[in-house]
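So, is this right?
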Amino acid sequence: MAADNLPSEFDVVIVGTGLSESVIAAACSRVGQRVLHLDRRNYYAGNWASFTFNGLLSWIDEYKRQQAISNADLAQEWSEKVEEGEEVISLSSVDSTISNLEVFSYASDDPEEEEEASVTVVSSLLNASDAQAKKTNSTSTEAQHTSCPDDSTPDVDKQQHQEPENEQTPKTQEPAKSEKNKKEPQPVSPQAEGLTEVKKKITYAKLIKEGRRFNIDLVSKLLYSRGLLVDLLIKSNVSRYAEFKNLSRILTYRNGKVEQVPCSRADVFGSKQLTMVEKRMLMKFLTFCLDFEQHPEEFQDFTQKPFWDYLKTKNLTENLQHFVLHSIAMVNQEILTEDGLKATQHFLRCLGRYGNTPFLFPLYGLGEIPQCFCRMCAVFGGIYCLRHSVQCLVVDKESGKCKAVIDTHGQRIGCSHFVVEDGYIRDEHRTRTVNRQISRAVVITDRSILPSEFDQQISLVTVPPLEPSSPAVRMVELSSSSMTCMPGTYLLHLTCSSLGKAREDLEPVISRLFHVPSSPREEPAQGSEEGEKPIMLWVMYFNMRDTSGLDSSCYCLPSNVHVCTGPDDSLGNDYSIKLAESVFHQLLPDEDFCPPAPNPEDIIYDGDGTQIEGAKFEETGDTLEAATEGEGGPQEIFQQAENIEPKASSDSIAQDTSTESGVPQIPPIVE
């Protein structure tokens, strides 16, 4: 369907494809509403979007171009569309939710050809070194054969002829080789040693060439395994459109180094950084937090006091207080005790559902989640148009309600309800301005912040305030197994509440945790403290407006116009899902919110060929369960009485099935 020839009537018109708007679109379409879903951008998800590296560079160029654009007065284009007794409310044509964007590249600017040539030279030198080592080793072996017993010599010679490329033969095949010679390292050319690093060097040209392997999120969030978003994905059956990986570890920055935080019972008792006394103290406190409501006498004297003060009275060491406050509850020192206990309880209840941490991360980035709900909306008849927006709302003066919209093609479209992203609302239609901001940084590095035997970790790092006046920083580190960065690199997202510009808020943390080259070709000295840090290859800073504190009273708009605020600064997605459900029930108070969509195999055809949906849908989503890591059956964490679903493993890859027209299609179901 052509974008300039849309139907003239819809039940709901939605502008913006962020998470809340996409959930509302899917929910409305699922219950039979006629939905038109528009976005002025050329991509889905708005400020929740994920970009390839090259796509992100294009987004940066578009941001710079928009800085020179102001809202044009297009009233003359509306005059012939507006009837007597109507007035118009114009919408903003400029996105002002992003500010203070700064980009710095520290990767070598050598061209790709030079890098490949260097790798070839290194490979040749290493091969020559290996050949020399083999020759030396062969000479040494031949000398040893003269002292071997006669009956063993022919066997050894035969093995050498059969496996000339094998530098080390099994111990059972070398009865005459001495223990000293078996442990002796093979000589390596000094030239090869020095050039090995060149082979691993990642240039800016390499980042551009492999740019499609990146999926970089504008907003950094994780999915609590028992959070509202996971519950909605399972209930609505939208989970079949995406796949997830379990967050593998939680880290914290303390005393100048990064440490792993013990979360589950196994982690606590397997931790080498806690004493046995600390392990028992921590287990006792976490067990209490699971059902703290049953023991009000334990905290009733601290209900109006900070959680930090309460922790000091629980005989927890300073080490444990840090873990609980910053890495388990993940709250600041000023939060009240009961709120801190609730945050700790929520963390613990999410353990064990899909792994030893409470979090999931969607493959290919968070931008996949809004697209999943857009797919569901399209499957049930919703119409999608990107690069297409609404210029103004047509309001009936008598009723004071929005009765139609005029799109950017000049077409008048009638609607009963209008849902719009906050970024489209002009300042003159706000009763309260927004001053809160989120500071964000996106960093590409050459190695993990805490290397381990398994290099494909997905980690959450909590960094407490470095100074009393500085904010706490949350960092998510993604490896290539998350399908968000190229092999050999790591993608890190830093987030905090803004005190100033994003660079001012986050640069002190980045300088502590990463080596920031003074020039693209500069490398840290071997063996130095800086040499142990990951090398920063590229970084982007920006601020994002946080409108999560606003409600309907903050806008001067008709009663049937509903505003969806943007991402908040929390780690989870509960705020956006609550907002979507609230708006849906204002639109359709008697309808079920996102009822289960049928699987194709559950559709039953009667004798007349009529489709009848399957009568029963399990509450647990197979796709979501099957796409997580883990093994084994049900388990209990901290003696939880609540049933916990079994975990399963899957390395399958989600597929992007959007068509060129911009209308998402249902992808194959992953079993």
